[in-house]
Design brief:
- By secondary structure, this protein is α+β, with helices and mostly antiparallel strands.
- Helix content is 28%, strand content 21%.
- It has 4 helices and 6 strands, in the order E-H-E-E-E-H-E-H-H-E.
- Strands 1, 2, 3, 4, 5 and 6 form a 6-stranded antiparallel β-sheet that branches.
- Helix 3 runs antiparallel to helix 4.
- The relative contact order is 0.22.
Amino acid sequence: MNSLERVFVALGTNLPNRSRHLSEGRQMLKKVSSGEWLESPIYETPPVGPEGQGPYFNQVVSFLYSGTAEQMLFYLKGSEFILGRKDRGHWNSREIDLDLLYFGSQTCEGRLIVPHSQITNRQFVLVPLNDIAPNWMDPRTGLSVGNMLASLLEKEEKLSFRVITSEEP
């Protein structure tokens, strides 16, 4: 039997109904959670990528998981498919995006990269991650989430985020 690992998953969507897409994504993740569920607020954030995209809803959740990192990756990709994600190309609009940020303190390279390679460059990941785990230590950089966010905000202007407090499309 595998030991339990704390995992962090980023959820994002910018196609209607954004609230429903995130809710369905959380429900898929709760099916494999072994407890200690944490979830950040939901933020509406500006799009990153090609012009003409609508704003995103972003959130980070964390829970204990009893499988392997590879099993989690396959589960995330399968969940995206089941929830209706269509391939529109890199950095384009999406029904749901489920990204594995951390798998305990493991580091992996190859098809599966953990920690996620872009965590330190993305406010839309670091802000909600900081809400639930400001003291989590990144095994690659040796920095806490709070320190990574502070470092990023020294390099770039803080983006305008809006906290979502009710069901919104």
